[in-house]
Write a structure and sequence with these properties.
The chain is of the alpha/beta class and about 180 residues long. Helices cover about 40% and strands about 15% of the residues. The protein has seven helices and five strands. Strands 2-3-4-1-5 form a five-stranded parallel β-sheet. Strand 3, helix 3 and strand 4 form a beta-alpha-beta unit. It is elongated and about 75 Å long. About 20% of the residues are buried.
């Protein structure tokens, strides 16, 4: 069984990954952190069923999408597909900063899929860049600055405010369509 946790909100997705691992531990599973290249070995040794003390194992792995890509078949892709169908081998995957769209090929294989999206986006900040909304703007800006690069946000804000000033002065930017 394959469980994937991903999302552009890295902090929230990592917290979800950690909470799933802790939930398995409280249920009596043995959680093992492994690297992606070890996944085919788990399937070959069939070690995922029970350990020496009768505990089931859960494997926690990060960023398998870097190895699971392309159209061609590989030993790794075959192993991941087999693990996804195997009911006694549990693998929990955390994909750092990846969206569901980027993981569409892996999403088809999962038994459980969780995506953490940012609560505020840069576009929400741009919408709040208006007179009378300063408090909401600053709150949204500080929230977005926690997850996005500051220079990226400030560049978008600068372009947006420059266009607003040009429209207010009656000057149309030739690169901007009139309906925008």
């Amino acid at each position: 069984m394959l469980t994937i946790i991903c999302g552009e909100d890295t902090a929230a997705s990592r917290a979800k990954f950690t909470s799933i691992k802790q939930a398995y531990e409280t249920k009596g599973f043995r959680v093992q952190n492994i690297v992606p290249s070890e996944l085919p070995e788990i399937l070959k040794s069939n070690e995922g069923v029970l350990d020496l003390f009768g505990q089931e194992s859960v494997y926690a792995v990060e960023n398998i999408s870097s190895l699971y890509k392309g159209r061609g078949k590989s030993e790794f892709k075959t192993a991941v597909e087999a693990i996804s169908k195997h009911e006694t081998i549990h693998v929990v995957v955390w994909e750092n900063g990846k969206s569901a769209y980027e993981l569409s090929s892996l999403k088809k294989l999962t038994g459980s899929f969780h995506e953490s999206k940012p609560t505020q986006s840069v576009f929400d900040v741009l919408d709040l860049a208006a007179p009378g909304k300063m408090h909401a703007f600053l709150k949204s800006l500080s929230s977005v600055l926690e997850t996005q690069e500051a220079m990226f946000i400030y560049t978008l804000l600068w372009r947006h405010i420059r266009k607003l000033i040009l429209v207010q002065e009656g000057v149309m930017d030739p690169k901007t369509a009139p309906w925008q």
